[in-house]
## 1
Amino acid sequence: MLFLNALLIPEEILNFSDVVHVWYFLKTFTVDSWRQTGELPLWNPLIFSGVPFAANPQSTLFYPPFWIFFSIPVHFSITLLFVLHFVFAGLGMYVFARLRRLSFLPSLFAALVFVLNWKVVAHIFAGHLTQTAAWSYFPWLMASIDYFAQKRSVKSMIGVTLCYTLLFLAGHMQLFYYQFLVASAYLLTLAATTYRDKWFGISVRYALCGVFIAVCTAVSLFPVVELTQYFHRSGGTAYSFASSFSLPLKALAGFILPYLQGIPEPGSNLKNQFFWESAVYCGILPIFLSMIGYRSASRVHSLFFGSLFFFSLLFALGANGPLFKPLYYILPGISYFRVPARMFLYGCFSVSILSAFALQTLMDDYKDIRLKPLLRICGILFALMVLAHEYLYYFHSNRELTGSGRTLFYLFCGGLVLLGRYKAWLKNKYLFALIVIFISITDLFTMEYPLITTKPLDNLFPANHIYGGVTNDPTLFRIFDTTGVFPQYMSAQYNVQQIGGDEPVMLGSYLNYIHRAYRMPSDDTKAEHSLFTIPNLNKNIDWNRINLLNVKYLYSFNKIDQPNLIEEGTTAINSFSDESSDDLFSSFSAYMISNMVKIYLYRNARALPRSFVLPITDQSMTPDDTLYSFMYNNFVGLEPAQILDYTSNDISFKVTTDTPCYLFSSEIYYPGWKVFVDAAEADMIVFDGVFRGVKLAEGTHSVEFRFEPASYIIGRRVTAAGVVLLVLSVLVCFSPLEYTKEKFFLFFFR
């Protein structure tokens, strides 16, 4: 129901920021490249002047559900994938609850709270597709850990392996890391308590699962591991960066007031201020029920899920709490990620299962003695909120309690139904459970349904003359966009390459080069500094370095006084509709937009060709010295190379020279790129630490740069072997005769 409108309008795209700016871009590029060449793109030339693609976890090239992009239009595939993972997550939570011996209605309650809590749906609203996919595996992973600890069989090992494999391939490394920590802690808890005499066998088999997971994910794992050596976050990031987007202390009031930061508006990052990172609301009734949820759980599970809630909350506080900083220095891997607030997703999981335990308890025993203090807490909170609401609204005109009216309403309804159960007014346990579910889901659903909106695909590509010169230019070039007027999803649509981009994976060597081109000091090159936001292009720009990047067009908010730049056109910001401008300028604050009137398009008259010949005038000079010599002599005598073919994984040139020379290409170097001269592999030269090149003798030569990373080739073979072994194991260990209709019905519905 949450995605009903989106499913009924397949010609429109979800109005989520990251859907438009990230996923439409990534998948349009993937599909177009595959259709052009018949092979998967391992390299993406559209952003950062070229960046590894298969090594980028978010490319999700090897995640099976994402293969629907090759048969269904990209924009509607995104909608379907959100829906499928949303349903898959709910089903997984239901299965996990059933394994914890909860009956049908409490299990259904756990599933609904898990998928509809404000934290999860807020991330869906933000368009976080890989995060949604990774999160959907968590209840299945916990269920497989439960089964594994109990059985320790090959069948149980297959379940753990399959969950971890798909979780890794889903592409969100931060959630994979978090879920590995939580699931391993859960297994350790079970091994140390319930299965104390089996701990050694559990440990050995879990380690074997780890080996099998590495084999099955090798096609993605090996390139990712290779990238970590060249990634700009290699070795970790500074504490200030890793703790960015910590959960603010005032956000804790969001347990009761979900609209504390205001009511979200679909499609807008600027006005919503990344509220999904500070969202914690799980519904009024689930929060209160979780306080007595340990009653029907075993001692081990009540202790674990209660501890998980408080751990995830303290971790999510990041720099605002006491836990994150010591973990940053002690626990390997924490420093590679930012946004510690995402850890509270597992707090929401704890609330979901603990509240389901409580519902089961109250269904079985309406005279539970722990219900009385809970009713008192509800009553006191209700009274305090009424007083605060009246005081702030009527005496101070304060809007800090936005949406408090709905909180009061659901708090009153929840307290009333709990009181009815305690007083034996609701003796029918099924009616009681249905009312609890109805109140909780109405509470959550009415908040979230308005967020799931769509918009026409054509709105992504506003008609404006500021694009014409760029999109109609048939030559090979890059653009330097300092405004955000040419977002990367338009780059995928029109095959326009940029020197900037919006993507957390970038090469450290390229980031250093950009900083030198901007003449911008950077104390922490591992942090994500913008690659296109420049306050004033008249100052501090090394135009020779920009020219080496084959930059032909520039977009700027300010008029640039440079002899090499020719003004091609201007447009007013208000010429864009409010909706499209929010998409186009999402990288900028509302203040910047409101104080900038025009966008200028410039053509760079001194743009260097994509590849050119550098004659070797002095054999004692290094390739870099030869390049610098030509650079600071305005490239006198430079001859362009003829481009024969240009695809994501393969670039071919024809070069004719009368003297020994270097062929310089402004393509970015990365391990795996090979160069072939006249079909024979030659030694690659790396110019200025970032560009590709090769030394040539006099004559006419064909030169081909081909991307064949050994990490991908070896990983593909290892994964193929692992998948074959996994399929054979499934065929041997799982018999459909085991699963009768009666067993299926009893498990899911009794």
Note: The chain has a mean pLDDT of 84.
## 2
Amino acid sequence: MDPTGMQEEPLDRLAALRGIVDRYHDHRGVLREVSHSTRQGILRAMGIDVDDAASVQKAIDDAARLSTGQVVPPAVVWRDGELSLELVVGDGAPDRRITCTLNFEGGGREQWQAPAAGRTTLLQRPGALPPGYHSLDVTVGADEVLRSLLIAAPEMCHQPAALAGEARRWGIAVQLYTLRSAMNWGIGDFADLTRLARDAGRAGADFIGLNPLHALFTADPAQCSPYSPSSRHALNVLYIAVEVLPDYAQCPQAQERVAQKSFQEELDRLCNEPLVDYAGVAAAKLEILRMLFVRFRKEEIARGTARAHSFEAFCATRGEPMRLHALFEALDEVMRSEHHASEGWTSWPQAYRDPSGPAVADFAEREAVRVEFHAWLQWLAESQLAAAARAAKDAGMAIGLYGDYAVGANPGGSETWSNQAVYRRDAAIGAPPDPLALKGQDWGIPPQDPTALMAQRYLPFTRLMRSNMRHFGALRLDHVMALYRQWWVPGGMPATEGGYVHYPLQDLLGIVALESERGQCLVIGEDLGTVPDAVREAMQSWGIYHYKVLWFERTEDDGFRPPRKWARAALASVSTHDLPTLASWWEGTDIALRAKLDLYPSAEVRAEVEAERARDREALLQAMAEAGVRPRWPVDRFEEGFAGAIHALLASSQAALVAVQAEDLLGMTEPVNVPGTHGEYANWRRKLDADLAELTTGTKARPVLEAMRRYRTR
């Protein structure tokens, strides 16, 4: 009996039906039990009144119907050729009439009769289904129509012809905001990206890897983590390059303001700061962009020009998700200034928390111009990102831009406000305890409820994939294991007391594959850490590339894996944004930084880490010697030649793709992000210490680029 007085059995059954596991293997392989209170907390977060027996039973009945096929599910993802679905459609006479109608996405329809045998009906259609989003109507008897979205997936994700055979490609990975140039306003922008794409293409690179470009909070630019975005449907408008906009060239008022001494002094300050001043950048850009918008409405919209029609088409094509994001941005701006609502929509007055409520409708009408401004910003950002993608292709890049898709969205942002039915705010996703985080992790990101996702025919996920594959030749799925299971931490509980919730992996990967093929976008899954066998098998089956990092490619005796034994279907890199740079790792400055930030529980632990690093350096030298790329000089400090040798080791691997971190091209030691810190370190703010031209022409970069060209050519 649990504390509520209810028997545990119904709740246990409901938890299982809703995908909540009762046990799991931890990072050491030890089987762990998930407490009843944790599973109950997750059910509460899913909106179930666990204290009411009738509510629990209703939830069990609803979940059981879906899991046993007692109704046509809202969506069916089909991959294996001929359609053959067994459904239990209810009681009735054995000779009742059951009619199936298949409406194809591109037009046309088919209709056939399905045999009825008691409660069981087998829906079959000969021949392979064309990939796409089709609707399936099942009519039982005279008038009962069961409707489902039939998603026919291709055999696998898009496989670029440029990677066929033994082809090996490489590219440069950058955090866009870190780029320095003579033209930007204190933050890397889309014009910088266009220039880098051209330079890197000339240097022989086949892609530019990027941080997530998701929309953050325009009204609160200090929230700068690209992995806690307001919305993954939209772009970060601070990446707009103001001075290259057509509107800027035609707006004397804006040009005069930018030319003023005070404005130029502010731009100089923003550019010379070693850290991105997000608030300062936002203030400067938005001031001028508002001027340009006034001009756009007067000279373009009022006159019905081609650019005005392009903007209107953008809004129409992006539809409801873009309208709601622009509306959120306008509301957030007003709420922060007038109501001091610093936590996003969850701190707004209650009347504005419902996107479909009358207060929001009144605001949208009253502030239509303000809302339109934020939609216009998205159009500008989209246009400039598209130009950068074209520049990459024009420069001869086989892949082009390589984007990054964050695993979740900020609880106070546009994405969660726009579709509250699918997000569960009384829980957060994170990770169970592991050697790097013994207390587990709570990322503060609300999970999507898989049952609610299915009820919405997977449309939220489909739209996210489509939005994030647009303009990209490859897309990295952060924490790809989230498509299989997520660690839910119920509100009020520590991360150690979380539990796994399973997701429909094959269904979600079918949608990934369909959008990947349509967008001609390679998919790379970030599969670092403990990865369930089911995920690795699914990645191979669906043609999803692995994400390999040099530091973690180890042998059983703790050496480094020889290049010839690296996975072929993979993107390989020395490091990532969450790990130390190559120079920092070699010199041990990352250990000193973590000690300075008080991230080691004791001096003994730090000493153990230092001893382990010394062993790792020796093991790396041994691996380099065995691969024939060890430098001929003694290695007692980090230098450019050594960086070239390390990257030669990486480039000589079998991995189809290799990404070179921008920081490693410049020999930098300061990290982008230090996991486990918040205000103690300037995460997501540190800029590169040289102009972006140095990434492809600088002295420090030359040995690394030569290694790439030697082992990886077009």
Note: Residues 1-7 have pLDDT under 50 and may be disordered.
